[in-house]
Design goal:
Helices cover 46% and strands 12% of the residues. By secondary structure, the chain is α/β, with parallel strands linked by helices. A six-stranded mixed β-sheet has the order 3-2-1-4-6-5, with helices on both faces.
Length: 255
Protein backbone atom coordinates (compact mmCIF):
# COMPACT_ATOMS: atom_id res chain seq x y z
CA UNK A 1 0.00 0.00 0.00
CA UNK A 2 1.08 3.54 -0.70
CA UNK A 3 1.69 5.66 2.42
CA UNK A 4 -0.93 8.34 3.04
CA UNK A 5 0.11 11.68 1.56
CA UNK A 6 0.33 14.50 4.08
CA UNK A 7 -1.31 17.89 3.63
CA UNK A 8 2.14 19.45 3.29
CA UNK A 9 3.09 17.02 0.52
CA UNK A 10 -0.23 17.58 -1.24
CA UNK A 11 0.24 21.34 -1.15
CA UNK A 12 3.83 21.11 -2.37
CA UNK A 13 2.71 18.96 -5.31
CA UNK A 14 0.11 21.58 -6.21
CA UNK A 15 2.64 24.42 -5.93
CA UNK A 16 5.23 22.53 -7.93
CA UNK A 17 2.76 21.77 -10.73
CA UNK A 18 2.01 25.49 -11.12
CA UNK A 19 5.73 26.29 -10.92
CA UNK A 20 6.54 23.79 -13.69
CA UNK A 21 3.64 25.04 -15.82
CA UNK A 22 4.94 28.61 -15.48
CA UNK A 23 8.52 27.88 -16.50
CA UNK A 24 7.34 25.81 -19.47
CA UNK A 25 4.59 28.22 -20.61
CA UNK A 26 6.71 31.36 -20.31
CA UNK A 27 10.14 29.90 -21.12
CA UNK A 28 11.65 30.79 -17.75
CA UNK A 29 14.29 28.07 -17.42
CA UNK A 30 16.63 26.37 -19.90
CA UNK A 31 19.66 24.09 -19.92
CA UNK A 32 22.80 25.91 -18.82
CA UNK A 33 21.01 28.67 -16.90
CA UNK A 34 22.69 30.14 -13.84
CA UNK A 35 19.93 31.47 -11.61
CA UNK A 36 20.27 33.96 -8.75
CA UNK A 37 17.28 34.08 -6.39
CA UNK A 38 16.42 37.29 -4.56
CA UNK A 39 15.84 35.85 -1.08
CA UNK A 40 14.19 38.58 1.01
CA UNK A 41 13.27 36.15 3.78
CA UNK A 42 9.51 36.35 3.23
CA UNK A 43 7.37 33.30 2.53
CA UNK A 44 7.33 33.93 -1.24
CA UNK A 45 11.10 34.03 -1.72
CA UNK A 46 11.58 31.06 0.64
CA UNK A 47 9.17 28.99 -1.44
CA UNK A 48 10.82 30.15 -4.67
CA UNK A 49 14.23 29.09 -3.39
CA UNK A 50 12.86 25.70 -2.34
CA UNK A 51 11.12 25.06 -5.67
CA UNK A 52 14.17 26.04 -7.73
CA UNK A 53 16.58 24.06 -5.56
CA UNK A 54 14.47 20.91 -5.75
CA UNK A 55 14.01 21.29 -9.51
CA UNK A 56 17.76 21.80 -10.05
CA UNK A 57 18.38 18.33 -8.61
CA UNK A 58 16.31 16.78 -11.40
CA UNK A 59 18.58 18.27 -14.10
CA UNK A 60 15.73 18.74 -16.55
CA UNK A 61 16.40 21.43 -17.48
CA UNK A 62 19.96 21.47 -16.12
CA UNK A 63 20.57 24.74 -14.25
CA UNK A 64 22.31 26.00 -11.10
CA UNK A 65 20.86 28.09 -8.26
CA UNK A 66 22.38 30.60 -5.86
CA UNK A 67 20.59 33.00 -3.52
CA UNK A 68 21.19 36.56 -2.35
CA UNK A 69 19.80 38.43 0.65
CA UNK A 70 20.17 42.23 0.63
CA UNK A 71 20.05 44.11 3.92
CA UNK A 72 19.19 47.81 3.61
CA UNK A 73 20.76 49.50 6.63
CA UNK A 74 18.48 52.52 6.88
CA UNK A 75 15.16 50.64 6.79
CA UNK A 76 14.01 49.12 10.08
CA UNK A 77 13.28 45.71 8.59
CA UNK A 78 15.16 42.62 9.66
CA UNK A 79 15.41 38.93 8.85
CA UNK A 80 17.34 36.26 10.76
CA UNK A 81 20.20 35.59 8.36
CA UNK A 82 21.29 32.53 10.36
CA UNK A 83 17.90 30.97 9.54
CA UNK A 84 18.32 31.87 5.86
CA UNK A 85 21.82 30.34 5.88
CA UNK A 86 20.47 27.12 7.39
CA UNK A 87 17.49 27.07 5.00
CA UNK A 88 19.76 27.41 1.96
CA UNK A 89 22.34 24.96 3.28
CA UNK A 90 19.70 22.26 3.67
CA UNK A 91 18.71 22.84 0.04
CA UNK A 92 22.31 22.88 -1.21
CA UNK A 93 22.11 26.53 -2.26
CA UNK A 94 24.89 29.07 -1.70
CA UNK A 95 23.68 32.25 0.02
CA UNK A 96 25.26 35.68 -0.44
CA UNK A 97 24.39 38.34 2.19
CA UNK A 98 24.87 41.95 1.10
CA UNK A 99 24.52 45.19 3.07
CA UNK A 100 23.38 48.33 1.28
CA UNK A 101 22.26 51.89 2.04
CA UNK A 102 20.32 54.53 0.13
CA UNK A 103 20.31 58.32 0.32
CA UNK A 104 16.80 59.74 0.73
CA UNK A 105 17.96 63.35 0.16
CA UNK A 106 16.56 64.65 -3.15
CA UNK A 107 19.16 65.80 -5.71
CA UNK A 108 19.95 69.50 -5.90
CA UNK A 109 17.61 71.41 -8.18
CA UNK A 110 19.15 73.18 -11.20
CA UNK A 111 16.91 76.12 -10.34
CA UNK A 112 16.58 77.50 -6.82
CA UNK A 113 12.88 78.08 -7.40
CA UNK A 114 12.16 74.53 -8.59
CA UNK A 115 10.79 72.01 -6.11
CA UNK A 116 12.30 68.55 -6.29
CA UNK A 117 9.94 65.98 -4.84
CA UNK A 118 11.78 63.32 -2.83
CA UNK A 119 11.36 59.70 -3.90
CA UNK A 120 9.28 57.58 -1.49
CA UNK A 121 11.32 55.24 0.73
CA UNK A 122 9.65 52.15 -0.80
CA UNK A 123 10.91 53.11 -4.26
CA UNK A 124 14.42 53.90 -3.01
CA UNK A 125 14.67 50.71 -0.94
CA UNK A 126 13.35 48.53 -3.77
CA UNK A 127 15.67 50.09 -6.33
CA UNK A 128 18.67 49.77 -3.99
CA UNK A 129 18.02 46.06 -3.41
CA UNK A 130 17.36 45.43 -7.09
CA UNK A 131 20.59 47.19 -8.10
CA UNK A 132 22.61 45.06 -5.66
CA UNK A 133 21.02 41.92 -7.13
CA UNK A 134 21.81 43.04 -10.68
CA UNK A 135 25.46 43.66 -9.77
CA UNK A 136 25.87 40.35 -7.94
CA UNK A 137 24.19 38.38 -10.74
CA UNK A 138 26.72 39.75 -13.23
CA UNK A 139 29.65 39.11 -10.86
CA UNK A 140 28.55 35.48 -10.44
CA UNK A 141 27.92 35.00 -14.16
CA UNK A 142 24.20 34.42 -13.67
CA UNK A 143 21.93 34.99 -16.67
CA UNK A 144 18.62 34.78 -14.72
CA UNK A 145 17.45 36.71 -11.66
CA UNK A 146 14.46 34.98 -10.03
CA UNK A 147 12.07 37.10 -7.97
CA UNK A 148 9.27 35.85 -5.72
CA UNK A 149 6.31 37.72 -7.20
CA UNK A 150 3.20 35.51 -7.15
CA UNK A 151 -0.01 35.77 -9.18
CA UNK A 152 -1.63 38.20 -6.74
CA UNK A 153 1.36 40.56 -7.10
CA UNK A 154 0.95 40.62 -10.88
CA UNK A 155 -2.79 41.25 -10.61
CA UNK A 156 -2.34 44.02 -8.04
CA UNK A 157 0.29 45.62 -10.28
CA UNK A 158 -2.15 45.58 -13.20
CA UNK A 159 -4.72 47.43 -11.05
CA UNK A 160 -2.11 49.94 -9.86
CA UNK A 161 -1.00 50.70 -13.40
CA UNK A 162 -4.59 51.11 -14.54
CA UNK A 163 -5.62 53.37 -11.66
CA UNK A 164 -2.48 55.46 -11.20
CA UNK A 165 -0.67 55.31 -14.57
CA UNK A 166 -3.56 55.09 -17.02
CA UNK A 167 -2.22 51.95 -18.71
CA UNK A 168 -3.07 48.26 -18.63
CA UNK A 169 0.16 46.43 -17.90
CA UNK A 170 1.89 44.32 -15.28
CA UNK A 171 5.21 42.71 -14.34
CA UNK A 172 5.80 40.02 -17.01
CA UNK A 173 6.84 36.49 -16.02
CA UNK A 174 10.03 36.97 -18.05
CA UNK A 175 11.73 40.29 -18.77
CA UNK A 176 14.98 40.68 -20.70
CA UNK A 177 17.09 43.58 -19.43
CA UNK A 178 18.22 45.98 -22.13
CA UNK A 179 21.52 47.13 -20.59
CA UNK A 180 22.86 43.80 -19.31
CA UNK A 181 22.77 40.11 -20.33
CA UNK A 182 20.20 39.26 -17.69
CA UNK A 183 16.57 38.16 -17.57
CA UNK A 184 14.24 38.73 -14.64
CA UNK A 185 12.00 35.69 -14.14
CA UNK A 186 8.98 35.24 -11.87
CA UNK A 187 8.39 31.47 -11.55
CA UNK A 188 5.59 31.91 -8.96
CA UNK A 189 3.44 33.88 -11.40
CA UNK A 190 0.74 31.18 -11.63
CA UNK A 191 0.52 30.61 -7.86
CA UNK A 192 -2.07 32.46 -5.73
CA UNK A 193 -0.74 33.94 -2.50
CA UNK A 194 -3.24 31.91 -0.43
CA UNK A 195 -1.55 28.63 -1.46
CA UNK A 196 1.86 29.98 -0.48
CA UNK A 197 0.56 31.14 2.91
CA UNK A 198 -0.92 27.71 3.63
CA UNK A 199 2.29 25.91 2.69
CA UNK A 200 4.49 28.34 4.64
CA UNK A 201 2.37 27.74 7.74
CA UNK A 202 2.60 23.96 7.43
CA UNK A 203 6.37 24.12 6.82
CA UNK A 204 6.78 26.59 9.67
CA UNK A 205 8.78 29.01 7.55
CA UNK A 206 10.35 31.44 10.02
CA UNK A 207 8.84 34.92 9.78
CA UNK A 208 10.86 38.12 9.49
CA UNK A 209 11.97 39.58 12.82
CA UNK A 210 10.79 43.06 11.87
CA UNK A 211 8.58 43.94 8.92
CA UNK A 212 9.00 47.05 6.79
CA UNK A 213 7.47 50.13 8.52
CA UNK A 214 6.13 51.38 5.17
CA UNK A 215 4.55 48.17 3.86
CA UNK A 216 0.96 49.17 4.75
CA UNK A 217 1.18 52.74 3.44
CA UNK A 218 1.51 52.25 -0.31
CA UNK A 219 -0.54 52.25 -3.51
CA UNK A 220 0.01 48.48 -3.59
CA UNK A 221 -1.86 48.12 -0.30
CA UNK A 222 -4.80 50.03 -1.76
CA UNK A 223 -4.70 47.89 -4.92
CA UNK A 224 -4.73 44.73 -2.76
CA UNK A 225 -7.78 46.00 -0.85
CA UNK A 226 -9.56 46.88 -4.08
CA UNK A 227 -8.83 43.43 -5.50
CA UNK A 228 -10.14 41.73 -2.35
CA UNK A 229 -13.35 43.76 -2.56
CA UNK A 230 -13.78 42.84 -6.22
CA UNK A 231 -13.13 39.17 -5.41
CA UNK A 232 -15.81 39.25 -2.70
CA UNK A 233 -18.30 40.45 -5.33
CA UNK A 234 -17.08 38.11 -8.05
CA UNK A 235 -14.94 35.09 -7.03
CA UNK A 236 -13.94 34.69 -10.69
CA UNK A 237 -12.34 38.14 -10.96
CA UNK A 238 -8.84 36.65 -10.64
CA UNK A 239 -9.34 34.54 -13.77
CA UNK A 240 -11.04 37.38 -15.67
CA UNK A 241 -8.21 39.81 -15.03
CA UNK A 242 -5.55 37.19 -15.81
CA UNK A 243 -7.31 36.30 -19.08
CA UNK A 244 -7.42 40.00 -20.02
CA UNK A 245 -3.67 40.31 -19.44
CA UNK A 246 -3.08 37.23 -21.60
CA UNK A 247 -5.31 38.51 -24.43
CA UNK A 248 -3.44 41.82 -24.46
CA UNK A 249 -0.08 40.05 -24.61
CA UNK A 250 1.09 41.42 -21.25
CA UNK A 251 2.33 38.02 -20.04
CA UNK A 252 4.27 37.00 -23.14
CA UNK A 253 7.63 35.32 -22.64
CA UNK A 254 10.66 37.39 -23.58
CA UNK A 255 12.21 36.61 -26.92
Amino acid sequence: MHPMITEQERLFKQLNQRFVKAFVQYGLLADGDRVLVGLSGGKDSLLLTELLARRARISHPAFTVEAAHVRVDNIRYETDTSYLQQFCQELGVSLHVISAHFDSTPPASPSSSAIVKPKPPCFLCSWTRRKQLFNLAQQLGCNKLALGHHQDDLLHTALMNLLYQGRFDTMPPCLAMKKMPLQIIRPLCLIPESLISSYASLCRYEKQLKTCPYEHDTNRTMARQLFEQAESLNPEVRFSLWSALEREGKLNAAT
